[in-house]
Amino acid sequence: MNTVKMNTSELKFRAKELRAGDRVLLSGAVFTARDAAHKRLCQLIEKNETLPFCLDGACIYYTGPTPAPEGMAIGSCGPTTSGRMDKFTPALLDRGLIAMVGKGERSEEVCGSIVKNGAVYFCAIGGAGALAAKSIVACDEIAFKDLGCESIKRLVFNDFPLIVGIDSCGGNLFNKK
Prior knowledge:
Layout: E1 3-7, H1 11-14, E2 23-32, H2 35-46, E3 59-61, H3 89-93, E4 99-102, H4 108-117, E5 120-123, H5 129-133, E6 136-143, E7 152-166
């Protein structure tokens, strides 16, 4: 199995090339958002208000990073359980979200929406938040500061190691068939 190096700016055009099980070293801008931030994003969509970042071609990492220790861009930054975002995910995918990073299975509705929208779901290694932080070279808080560690941040990855969990053709590492 090969490892593909990819920049987030390429995801919109290359997500359909990826297959479940592919290893990817992802670099570029990624936004953090957990369930509280997802709820607010969907409320903004319902009110037809401006979102804090453009969803078209965007990648969201389901994480709530800890504060940065001296000399680092960010503290521990491991993935959270993706299923908690499932009720919000199809609305974001329909508006251009191209990739998500988290851990664990996704609902049938989300899997269908990934295929429909030509998107991809990446799995990050759970329990290795300090190691993951070493691949993050920049962190800027951009929205919902009142949510603390769950605010939306713009991270910059450098060769962040991921595995394609669900691809745009319906391939799914979690299928037990």
